[in-house]
Amino acid sequence: MTNKIQTDDTIAAVATPVGTGAISIIRVSGPNAINSVENIFSGRSKLSKSKTHTIHYGKIIDKKNIIDDVLVFIFRAPNSYTGEDSIEISTHGSSFISQRILKLLIENDVRPAEPGEFTKRAFLNGRIDLAQAEAVTDVINSRTEVSLKGARNQLDGLLSQKVNSLREMLINSSSLVELELDFAEEDLEFIQFDELKKRIENILNEIDLLINSYNFGKVIRDGINVALVGLPNVGKSSLLNYILKEARAIVSKIPGTTRDVIREEVSIDGILFRLFDTAGIRISENEIEKEGVLRSREVVKNSDLILFINDVEQEYPKDLYSELKNLNKEENIVSVINKIDLKSKTQQKSDVKVSALTGEGITELFDLMKSKVFGNSKYSEQNAMVTNERHYNCLLKTKESLNNALTSVSNKMSGEFISVDLRNALNNLGEIIGEVTSDDILNNIFTKFCIGK
To answer: What is the pTM of this model?
Structure first.
């Protein structure tokens, strides 16, 4: 969708978070953006006569009352974020001031913007495609260096470029098939079955690369949930505190000290790890501890990785390990022996040995955690990557249509069957970048944005 959509109304919203800060920004976009702000602005410049991409100092006036000293940024269509005439008003960071100015704008033929409406207009006006629009939210929500790089990758159009390239390949092949249908009576052949099969297989290989990038991309975008699990007093809380470099969890020799799940986040080499320190899983008559154990089991079910922690002094808990395998996949479990600083001999098998007191083995633990999640995958800013579930599902449907087309080609079936499947594949790819989409999909995407973006 690259055609400019004319909008009759002008929207406005506070674009900065609620609260007290140095500055606050009000965004205005639409055909009446400049005039509506000019009605409440007093300065040396006449905004309606000013050039695009200029900044003007003045005051916002309510009748004769000065509301605030402001800077007004002018962006004229089509060279603005939304593709429309747009203004950003920079005020002092009082929520009262920004809401007062927003109220004045509403009194001047402007309406409050809906969540994500500025970005939605940018998409509808062809400034960005749908995949790039979705990346805006990922940039805002990025928590680590790697998640920011992944979001920038998509916002800069790497995925869109790849999808457009695949669509172009599909269009070329589909056009030849449909051309044959148009000249069926002349019995002309524009592409041989073997050549068409080769082209579809090449596209399928590229689709598979994108599909296979999803698990890695999802981790980059959302982070990794890690459960710290073990019997009481094996040092789960001590290990959490060491990783966080702060005394977040209470440490005691008394069994059952941790009664609830403690959730903390840490960035390890740019990857977000969500750590869940669980209550020791055991049989208990204490009602509070029993509830903690139930919550621990729920955390284990939903974790991407489980650190199964034992220590050098206690006997290996086979029953607990069996329970963990029932709650999650065995390949997600990392066996950790703690308290190696005690120098006690242990016959327990483990993936890594650590000391939450001295930090010995912690680097090896981090390396093992990353390799468990990523395997041999290598993140590169140069490669298109799928981080969004909607894109992933579109690619799966594309692959299904292409496999159907490949079957038809292999069986040398009529071009009508092949053409339908190639068209379906094109439509499914088009959904990723918004070339083919519905209002329901758009509403579902943009209502998840914050107001003012």
So the answer is: 0.81
